[in-house]
Prior knowledge:
4 domains; Immunoglobulin-like; 12 helices; 43% helix; 6-stranded mixed β-sheet; single chain
Amino acid sequence: MSAVKSTIARLWAKADRPAVRAFFLSITALTAALLLALYSGAAAELGQRTLASTTALAALAIAAWVGVTLVPILAKRTPLRWIGYKIEYRITLEGWIYLVGIILVALAALNTGNNLLFLILASLIAIVLLSGVLSSITLSGIELRLVLPEHIFAGQPVRAMVELENEKLTLPSFSLRVEAAKTKLPQANAMLETPVYFPYLPKRDRVQQVIPVTFPRRGVYCQEAFRIVTRFPFGFLRKARQLNLKTEALVYPSVEPTAEYLEILPGLEGALESLTKGRGQDLYALRDYIPTDSARHVHWKASARSGSLMVREFTREDDCRILLVLDPHLSAEESENLKAGVSAANERFERAVNICASLAWHFYENNSLLQFRSAGVQTPLAPADQIIFPILEHLAVAQPLPADPDQSLMADLATSPELFKIIVTTRPHGSVPGSVWSSSYVVFLDDQMV
Length: 450
């Protein structure tokens, strides 16, 4: 008994007290109106028309008062907004087989007039109706949330969280599947390539699932809507409800080292080494030799003592300041190909973007002083860890531009001789002005790296 009292007390503490009062008051008033209506009918049978009219009017007045004052209070507190949701449905293969069975039973019942067959037919039809009602209840009151990581790289699987919330007060939901709705845009890509299944969703509760998601290309991914599908309870109907949940994801270019990037890196490191030669004079440490070390840094005496090659490391007096440049302007020939829809120009530009992203990530890992420029975009000179993601955000949405006969971007680069410039371009040799070469390393995408 004490357990029942404690449960009632806990429910009363969580209850919406004004709504509870309005509910019980409505029940009491409508009960009184029903009794007055019954008394009015009895009075009319006895010929007491005045009394019958008075009690009937009183019953109508009480019912009208409940409808005007108490029903709106209860309606505002009733979370039944999902009643008007548009639900799509189609009959499954199992459902068609079941309907054929119903037709056969109906024909047999009509031909024989057997009451037992009519009873079985009514039960079969009731099961179909029950299936439709239960599946609608399962889809009602469900809200969806999709959470993606802040930073997403093309080609790398990330962990996305799909969350379903059941807002129904009394009933759970069963056998729900979340999938991406078809979009009207032909170029749009679905975020959820594989549907996510939720076997059970308790009432007034949330259930989460973490799934791997891979975005194959850089750019902005947009999903306008998602669908929640169920075949509960018998699998005769496949009902679906669409949720307009616009979700966007900005996907960075891949920063994984490619074969092309690995071909560029040794020449780039050699250019940086020649630029910074002699800047560090104080000995910092001795370490084992690795194949990429210069022979002039070998400490021969220490190598003789240890029996293996040892190299010297020096303290650096200042860091090399690097300007990373993506030249988005195509050559005149590639501009014409781009207008004609030839994919080769786009492929070359994608290669340039990926190389630029890999270089930016390389300098981020080395914590270099870095600046980035492109057409209409310029970041401040700062440690790479402070500007790496603004750089990747631009590279995620960068698009090739037509040929620039004035070469305004290259002219601006010539005004910064104090920065070591790494220029990634799809244009051919001879397109870079000579004034830029003295402090630059240019990456051409024609199988020759200069």
